Amino acid sequence: MRTLQTATRAVHGVSLHHFLRLKRLWSTRIQLMTASAGVSVKAAALGNGFWQMGDFARGYKMTFGEAPSETPARSRRL
Known about the structure:
The protein is mostly helical. The chain contains five helices and no strands.
């Protein structure tokens, strides 16, 4: 475990926990951007392992600069 943490920090510059969270956030974002109109933000978040919706929404907004609910609408306009 220590080797994996050290390697993640050396390669990506962040802790293993932070890297895995970012990976799950990006997966959720891609799902929201490419999903049909019927997919909810909650379903996408739960499908990527986020159980606390408030924490998920805060982390998403800090990472991407928009609320998770804004992503599907914005991607449909593009």
